[in-house]
Design a protein that fits this description.
Strand content: under 5%
InterPro entries: DUF1232
Organism: Elizabethkingia meningoseptica (Chryseobacterium meningosepticum)
Protein name: DUF1232 domain-containing protein
Keywords: Membrane, Transmembrane, Transmembrane helix
Membrane topology: Multi-pass membrane protein
Helix content: 55-70%
Distance between the termini: 45 Å
Length: 112
């Protein structure tokens, strides 16, 4: 049971990413539009964070959780790397949604 509790605490820490809680309604709306086929997300912006969450929850790890500290750090690292990509995808969705409401067509451009 302690292992499950530590994973939950670890996931809670990862979700404290700046602005994540504020963007939850937008995230749920984005998932709704994706499931209806209206919005096509970028693979790394939506699918990879989902896989990262599954990895963090899964009992199968690259570094087992029974190793003190290091076992939980790999889960946290994976989530920490995935959160910015998810937040960026939510921002793209909001721009797409705003353009849709205003009758505009948006064009995706990658800036480097």
């Amino acid at each position: 049971m302690a292992l499950k509790t530590s994973k939950i605490r670890l996931i809670q820490e990862a979700f404290r990413h700046k602005g994540f809680i504020q963007k939850l309604p937008d995230l749920f709306r984005m998932v709704k539009f994706i499931s209806k086929g209206d919005y096509k997300p970028d693979l790394k912006g939506f699918i990879l964070p989902g896989l990262a969450l599954i990895y963090a929850i899964s009992p199968i790890d690259v570094i087992p959780d029974w190793f003190p500290i290091v076992g939980q750090m790999d889960d946290l690292a994976v989530l920490a790397l995935a959160m910015p990509a998810l937040m960026k995808e939510v921002e793209k969705f909001l721009i797409w949604e705003d353009g849709r409401k205003n009758g505009m067509k948006t064009i995706d451009v990658e800036a480097q």
